[in-house]
Each structure stands twice: as structure tokens, then as C-alpha cells.
What we know:
Keywords: Repeat, Signal. Pfam families: PPR (PF01535). It comes from Alexandrium monilatum. This is Pentacotripeptide-repeat region of PRORP domain-containing protein. By secondary structure, the chain is an all-alpha fold. Among the domains are: 90 residues; 65 residues, no CATH class. The chain is built from 14 helices and no strands. The longest helix is centred in the N-terminal third of the chain and has 17 residues. The radius of gyration is 41 Å and the shape is elongated. The N terminus is likely disordered.
Amino acid sequence: AQGACGRCPGGESMRPLRAAASLAAALLLVMDPSCWRGRASSRRPRWPAARRRPPAAAAVLPPGPPSHAERQAGRREPLFWRLDEVNNLAEEGAVVEAHSVLREIEKDVPARQQRMLYNTAIKACSRAGEYEVAQQYYEAMLKIRIQPSTRTFGKLMHAAWVAGEYHEAERWMEATLKAGLEPSPIQSNMALRAAALRDDGPRIDHWLRFMEDLRLEVDTFSVISLVDHAVRTGNQTMADEWFERALE
């Protein structure tokens, strides 16, 4: 006969027994999962493929520059990084360090980039005021038949300028023209200032005519140098003229 609950035998009198049986079954599952593993495995969720361990960053991102420790260990570095290293050393005027790297990579540099390599070395010399070393690099270029560019002569001019060799700075300007190259406005003004610093009136006139023919502007630094030259040499008319130009 059905109990008072109308759904299961035993009615209310059996409810405590059923609750105890359910609790015992739950405890058994917790204490010994092996008893339900086979039956429950079909309902266990499967993780998607995205749950797999992601690849390491090195496999996804492009490699960065090598560390100092890697360089010291002698690992071969891409040429691009070494060229960038040379340029940074040149900017700092670290001639010895730049030369060391240049010697390491010169055989790996394509022929079309050899001139750039020597130009960078000369730039290092100009930053450090090592004019004689800059000349040696220039001579080495010529020996292996690398044609200098406007930049080459510009860096040689700058190296001479930093060393206080103003006559030499003018000489490299003349070498630029002799090579059939067009000097930059900076080079032209540097030649003019070099003549002014040496108080060489004829050379000042020469470079002023040269710049006028090419319609190049006399920059502020050159104007100041010309005023100083006029004052030193007692040329009041010239001093007044260029002073007025400076105020324009």
C-alpha cells in the first residue's frame, strides 16, 4: 500500500531512512571516487583546445637584441644589430670600440654598404676630435677603391673642424668640388666660417661668391663669424654690414 506521501512506499515513516541512505551514498562517492568513475566519465566536461599550454613568448614575438652576456659568449649577432652598435659608438666618439666592431663585421658587410661603414668610422673620429685617424680611414677607403661621397667629405670637414684644423676643413671642401660632388649648405657655411676664423679675407670673398652663385644662404653661425672677423681686423664697415644682417 502507498504511504501518505502518495508517491513512494512507506510514506513519512520511510523518509528518514531514505535520507540516511542518500547521505551514505554521497559520503562513499567522496571517499572513494573509483566507485563512480566508470559511470560518471561520460558526463565529465572536455576542455577545449585553448586550455592547452600557450606557446612561449619567444615562439610568437620577434627576437630582441642580444644581451651583453650573449655577446660575451660569442654568439653570432645579426649584421643589422652590429651596424647599429657601430653607429651608436660613433655618435659617442668611441673610436677604439667602433673600430673593433668594424673589424669583426667588415667581411660580412655587402659591397654596397662598405662606404657607409667607413663613413661611420670617420664620424666616430670627428666626434672624438681624432682628425689624423679620420684621414687614415679615408686613405684606407681609397686603397680598396671605395669612392667617397659628399657625406664622407662632410665628416672629414667636421673632424678637421673639431680638431681646430680650419685650413684642412677648407681643403676637404675643395676636395668635394674636385670630385664633382655638390656640397651641402652646411659644408659651404663651414668653409666660409673656417676662412673667417683664420682671418683670410680673400678666402672669405671666395666662399661668399661661391655661395651667392649657388644661391645658398649664409647661416647665423657664419654671420657671427664674419662679424667677429671684421672686429678683429678693424673693418668697421664690414662689421656694421654683417651686424645688420644678423638683426634681420
